[in-house]
Amino acid sequence: MTDRETVEVRELLRRAVTRNDAAAMREAVDRLYGNAPEGLSAAAEYELRHPDYVMEMPQSGERIRGREAMRRMQETYPVPPSVTVRRLTGSGRVWVLETVNDYAGEIWHAAAVLELDQEGRILRDTRYFGRPLPPEPSRAALVEPID
Description:
This protein has helices at residues 3-19, 22-33, 42-48, 67-76; strands at 49-57, 62-65, 82-91, 94-103, 106-116, 122-130.
């Protein structure tokens, strides 16, 4: 993601917060977390985070405090996933993002609760991950598959 694109995404995030603009948020998320390799740039994401940024992963009991620590984690991560956005919902300063993350063939479903400041910077990011499971046989007659 170029510097210009980072500024554009920041403006989209600001619009999402100040105007409850779901279309702006969806475009920002698609550009930030999209499948293009440049979509997951640690440097670009750093610029979109508040200096007091905190990311938590409750399932593993991990917390990353500060946007610099998050950038270092991203830069040392062996193979970043490709991310497909399934759904986005929210308004104002709180948005929930559902994704399918592909870690070199290993699929994980994820939900992230993004909390932004008034300027549209990501202040808090809480992520939940789950591996796909086979359907429970006892529910077979009551459910339909998700594409």
